[in-house]
């Protein structure tokens, strides 16, 4: 991969606070209420080190490769060694370098290369790699049971879901986001290569076309139903809200999670063909927004304030009682917000010639029990959108805080 100009790397954003220590870049911009470093273009690198993991409030990239691993080694030391090697590799790849010291072609020709090589010549493309630990990792294999956070309790069964266990759960997840799909796939492929014999891939998902904006500098994206998605999503500029709703605070639970966040994933298949035969009027009533501008019904602009009290001339609510936007609104759930980071997916077609397509939902929050669970329970019981969607996969992961410098590694505070 191309070499990164150090001056460009350290000048990624005027609001970033960069520090060099064993090649590390650290930033605490989020907690200071300022915007963290951002790449000057979609080909440039983003900082790997910092108070929080990259890939959460980072302006959402266009491509995703998500993977969930099962740990197959029974040796704690082997797992720690792998996490250390993963961290070093991820630090290199996010800066546009090969995954290993000798790269794809620099080692002994008789030995397998240190890098798979499909990203040779490609820039960093804004790659971020984010890790999370699932509830199943905290069994009796590695002595972690006492460190399992209460917030990592298994999600309840929601009405109407039809989850496939083979594409749900997992011990460790990796979220790789980039502006180039080959860069994201390369990152996951090389971590899986490094983990051979210690972890095995449980399931994975490719995504395209972000469905949420995580910065006000980004326009609101559309899902495969054609509607703007996540208009009121938490944004990286919302420093006080992020502190309240996103980052785990001291006293919330195990100390190793302070500064981290909890990730929920849901693969939501859409009945595309049925939706496409539904009238525009009904589609808009279901969402509670117009399809073109994304404005709340009865309003003109996307970011106009929702008016749930507004009535039609016949006395019916302008925004229906069961409209998606009303059921999901924070006012319905004790001011619970989510930071959404989902992606569209198309996994070909099924045996009946229907598109296997939908939304790979990713949401980060401070405590799923108080945020995702009540929101999803309300939606699963009342949302008319359920006629057109089905939840087929689910995951819950504890994403630890960011890394201090090159001497740190993913899971250090957990395994200490």
Write the layout of secondary structure elements.
Blueprint (H helix, E strand, L loop, with lengths): L5 H5 L18 H4 L30 E9 L4 H19 L33 E6 L38 E7 L2 H14 L4 E12 L28 H7 L15 E10 L1 H5 L3 H8 L36 H4 L11 E2 L2 E7 L5 E11 L6 H11 L6 E11 L12 H4 L1
Antiparallel strand pairs: 1-3, 1-4, 2-3, 4-7, 5-8, 5-9, 6-8, 7-8
Helix pairs in contact: 3-4
Report the principal-axis shape: globular
The average pLDDT score comes to 91
**Largest pleated sheet:** 9 strands, antiparallel
Instruction: Tell me roughly what share of residues is in helical segments.
Output: 10-25%
| First-to-last CA distance | 34 Å
Secondary-structure-derived class: alpha+beta
Number of helices: 10
* Gyration radius, in Å: 21 Å
Low-confidence stretches: 1-36
Please indicate the percent range of residues in DSSP E strands (runs of 2 or more). Answer: 15-25%
Order of helices and strands: HHEHEEHEHEHHHEEEHEH
Query: What is the number of strand segments?
Result: 9
Cofactor: heme b
Signal peptide: 1-26
Subcellular location: Cell envelope
Keywords: Heme, Iron, Lyase, Metal-binding, Oxidoreductase, Peroxidase, Signal
What can you see in these coordinates?
Its main location: other. InterPro entries: Dimeric_a/b-barrel, Dyp_perox_C, Dyp_perox_N, Dyp_peroxidase, EfeB/EfeN, TAT_signal. It is a single chain. The protein has helices at residues 6-10, 29-32, 76-94, 181-194, 239-245, 272-276, 280-287, 324-327, 372-382, 412-415, and strands at 63-71, 128-133, 172-178, 199-210, 261-270, 339-340, 343-349, 355-365, 389-399. It is an alpha+beta fold. The chain has a domain at 6-215 and 400-415. Strands 1, 2, 3, 4, 5, 6, 7, 8 and 9 form a 9-stranded antiparallel β-sheet that branches. The longest helix is centred in the N-terminal third of the chain and has 19 residues, at 76-94. The radius of gyration is 21 Å and the shape is globular.
């Amino acid at each position: 991969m191309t070499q990164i100009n150090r001056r460009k790397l350290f000048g990624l954003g005027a609001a970033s606070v960069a520090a060099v220590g064993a090649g590390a870049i650290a930033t605490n911009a989020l907690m200071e209420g300022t915007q963290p470093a951002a790449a000057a273009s979609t080909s440039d690198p983003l900082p790997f080190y910092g108070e929080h993991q990259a890939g959460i409030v980072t302006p959402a990239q266009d491509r995703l490769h998500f993977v969930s691993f099962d740990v197959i080694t029974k040796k704690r030391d082997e797992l720690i060694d792998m996490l250390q090697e993963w961290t070093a590799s991820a630090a290199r790849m996010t800066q546009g370098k090969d995954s290993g010291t000798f790269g794809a072609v620099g080692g002994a020709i008789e030995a397998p290369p240190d890098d798979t090589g499909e990203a040779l010549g490609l820039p960093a493309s804004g790659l971020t790699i984010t890790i999370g630990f699932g509830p199943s990792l905290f069994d009796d294999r590695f002595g972690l049971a006492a460190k399992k956070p209460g917030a990592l309790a298994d999600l309840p069964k929601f009405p109407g879901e039809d989850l496939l266990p083979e594409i749900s759960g997992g011990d460790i997840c990796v979220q790789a986001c980039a502006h180039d799909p080959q860069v994201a796939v390369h990152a996951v492929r090389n971590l899986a290569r490094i983990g051979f014999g210690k972890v095995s891939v449980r399931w994975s998902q490719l995504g395209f076309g972000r469905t949420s904006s995580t910065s006000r500098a980004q326009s609101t994206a559309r899902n495969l139903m054609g509607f703007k998605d996540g208009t009121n999503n938490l944004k990286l500029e919302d420093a006080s809200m992020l502190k309240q709703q996103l980052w785990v605070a001291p006293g919330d639970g195990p100390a190793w999670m302070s500064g981290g966040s909890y990730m929920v994933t849901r693969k939501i298949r859409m009945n595309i063909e049925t939706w496409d035969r539904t009238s525009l009027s009904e589609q808009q009533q279901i969402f509670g927004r117009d399809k073109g501008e994304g404005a709340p019904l009865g309003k003109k602009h996307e970011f106009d304030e929702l008016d749930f009290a507004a009535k039609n001339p016949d006395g019916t609510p302008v925004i229906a009682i069961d409209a998606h936007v009303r059921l999901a609104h924070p006012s319905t759930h004790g001011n619970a917000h989510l930071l959404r980071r989902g992606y569209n997916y198309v996994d070909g077609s099924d045996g009946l010639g229907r598109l296997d397509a939908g939304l790979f939902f990713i949401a980060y929050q401070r405590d799923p029990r108080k945020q995702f669970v009540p929101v999803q329970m309300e939606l699963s019981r009342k949302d008319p959108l359920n006629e057109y969607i089905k939840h087929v996969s689910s995951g819950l992961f504890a994403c630890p805080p960011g890394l201090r410098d090159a001497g740190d590694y993913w899971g250090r505070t957990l395994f200490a």
